[in-house]
Amino acid sequence: MKHIDVKAVMNDKAFVGQEVTVCGWVRTSRNSKSVAFIEVNDGTSLKNIQVVVEKGDSADFKEPRVGMSVKVTGKVVEGRNNTVEINTTPDQLTVLGDAPTDYPLQKKGHTLEFLRTIPHLRGRTNTFNAVMRVRSVLAAAIHEYFQSNNYVYVNTPLITGSDCEGAGEMFQVTTIGYSNEYKSEEEYYADDFFGRRAGLSVSGQLEGEMAAMAMGKIYTFGPSFRAENSNTPKHLAEFWHVEPEVAFAELDDVIEIAESMVKFVIGKLLKTCPDEIAFFDAHFEKGLKARLEELISHEFGRVTYTEAIKLLQESGEQFVYPVEWGCDLQTEHERYISEKVFKKAVFVTDYPKEIKSFYMKQNPDGKTVAAVDLLVPGVGEIIGGSEREADYDKLIAAMNERNMNLDLYSDYLDLRKYGSVPHGGFGLGFERLIMYTTGLANIRDVILFPRTVGSIR
Ligand code: 4AD
């Protein structure tokens, strides 16, 4: 269907005076005696294009209803406020698809909660148009950052036999249901598709490490799955995960990469999406643009977990979750540290080994590991990473402490047998980055079709 993007027509004054064909969905429609004004949006631009239909003596012109899809041919003319419009006549306007009056997006200003009930249609609102463009631009910027710094993009398996994070959050992958006919779990799994227990990967890190031990610098960018029963504004059962892994790197290197990547992609976003950022600034978070500009022009803060606990204990705040050395930092603690103490993005390092994963490098103090989380105001944790334990014996000891089945990790352990090197990496929760850069407070609103506990369609 030969036509031109609305964005192209709106952004290029060379079209003025020319005849063009555009397609789109009707956002608003006003009819008067001799003319009709129709705002059309094809999704390529936040702004609608106004189509002015000169009705002439065409008595049977039917005004297109909101939600209908149309194809319009007409002349581009200068409009008000430095915009362009399309002048046309009834015979040049074709209705491609009807939309009866029960079309749910009749008026503007629906709540995000209501829009969640129509995920298949909410993309036609300005909010979701802007979210999806930010998402797309950030994804491209992430690839650009890593590609231009010699990283290899690898695709790690989504179905896996080993649990990376070891927190019991794996969805099971099976083709047969468990029945009483099986005498044991082993017997049941042996009968199943892979001949052993399998699940959806919570992280591509373990395979990412294997790739980094060959290619030096790699990154993954794909979905991860978590069966955690967390019905919160920042947890999805299926989220998109960016995981770089770098050989010959220690914790400080991992932190440097995380900071430079976050700054690069947000800088790119500010340049590429000024309209979208202005939209979120106006409707969702006043001062968003200034906050993002400030983030990329200042060094991120840095504090150890032990210091962070002290800051929280001395804060005088009444937290819902009590603070003591050894506890997991909750969102309220993370936000206090980044919003009240540092007032910017902050790396928290060296967590107690008991609350972190088996693969993290053990610090000489015997109590902490070389872990790092990046906390940002408004959201809390957006990145979790670490230097990895590169010593075979220490890694085995950490796995034994957690009663892990070493047989399932023999490939991973081999990396520490054959040419082991210091290495590390991190995982960025892509949706959390989008929450931070749009000011949207609920993770369900930054992905097309959210999957959360108790909700799928
Ligand atoms: O801190 P996490 O669990 O770390 C890992 O998975 C490591 N294997 C990463 C690595 O070192 N390669 O997860 C990393 C990030 C979190 O900081 C968070 O932003 C995001 O992934 N994340 C989630 N995002 C949305 N919904 C969930 N349920 C998430 N769980 C983690």
Commentary on this structure:
- The protein folds into 2 domains: 98 residues, Nucleic acid-binding proteins (OB fold (Dihydrolipoamide Acetyltransferase, E2P), Beta Barrel); 290 residues, Bira Bifunctional Protein, Domain 2 (BirA Bifunctional Protein, domain 2), CATH 3.30.930.
- The protein is 30% helix and 23% strand.
- The strands form 3 sheets. Strands 7-10-11-16-15-14-13-12 form an 8-stranded mixed β-sheet. The chain has a 5-stranded mixed barrel with strand order 1-2-3-5-4.
- It contains 13 helices and 16 strands.
- Helix 3 crosses helix 6 and helix 3 crosses helix 13.
- A hairpin with a 5-residue loop joins strand 4 and strand 5.
- The protein is elongated and about 90 Å long.
- 37% of the residues are buried.
- The model has no long low-confidence stretch (mean pLDDT 95).
- It has 457 residues and is of the alpha+beta class.
- It binds 4-amino-1,4-dioxobutan-2-aminium adenosine-5'-monophosphate.
- The site of 4-amino-1,4-dioxobutan-2-aminium adenosine-5'-monophosphate (4AD) has 23 residues, from strand 11, strand 15, strand 16 and helix 13.
